[in-house]
Amino acid sequence: MSDEEKFSLEKGIILVRFARENIEFFLKNNRKIPVPDRIKEEFADNYGAFVTLNKYNVSGNPLRGCIGYIEPTYSLYDVIHRVSISAAIEDPRFLSVTIEEMDNIVIELSILTPPKLIEVNDPKDYINKIVIGRDGLIAERGMRRGLLLPQVPIDQGRNWDVETFISHTCSKAWLDSNAWKKKDTKIYSFQAILFEEEKPRGDVIRKYLM
To answer: Which CATH number fits domain 3-113+191-207: 3.40.50.300, 3.30.70.890, 3.30.700.20, 3.30.360.10?
Structure first.
């Protein structure tokens, strides 16, 4: 069974609601909720995942927090248990989310496939090996590493081409935007299965990119 088949809408609903309940419980009680046995059993396989918090019905950039694990090091339930809280209170770009704000925040969950190195003989070959709307990217050189999810180049009215996407990924890794043209920079791709609330505490949909 493929990852696409494994994560039905029903399972996405369970996970997104688990993430919201965990965040809101933590903001009220300063501790995480215990993970229900059903979730431990059903989502025990290891995956990378990101939880993204977006302000609802806000034009421009609605991002309020986004944290995740790239590599499939931990069970999926454990990752979501950890990073849902981190997205709310530990994203260094923002102040901590308040419980009152959660009335106007929608939650997006991205479940990642394992990253794969894109092997090229010439950096120009990246242009034909990366598909906008399908691939997320990781740029890596030495200890520096940055990731952008597959939805980034097309969300919020963006219409990035591949070169723009790679350049922004390099910048996310605190590298020069043209670092992808250098041989010592590694570029990885991955895909994501996406679920998102349509409105705060509303129905959860499975998002399809392109």
So the answer is: 3.30.700.20
Where do the domains of the chain lie? 3-113+191-207, 116-190
Q: What are phi and psi of 67, to 5 degrees?
A: -140, 145
The two beta strands, 48-55 and 144-148, are: unpaired
For the chain, what is the mean pLDDT? 94
Assess contact for 192 and 111: CB atoms under 8 A. Answer: yes
- In angstroms, the CA 98 to CA 104 distance is 11
CATH superfamily of 116-190: Hypothetical protein ph0010; domain 2 (3.30.1490.150)
The contacts of residue 202 (CB under 8 Å, 6+ apart) are 106
State what percent of residues in the chain have pLDDT above 70: 96
Residue 42 main-chain phi, psi, to 5 deg: -80, -25
Query: Quick one: pLDDT band at residue 187, thresholds 50, 70, 90?
Result: very high
- The residue type found at 206 is R
Residue 158 confidence class, pLDDT cut points 50, 70, 90 = confident
**For residues 113 and 101, what is the distance between their CA atoms, to the nearest angstrom?**
31
Residue 163's pLDDT band (cuts 50, 70, 90):
very high
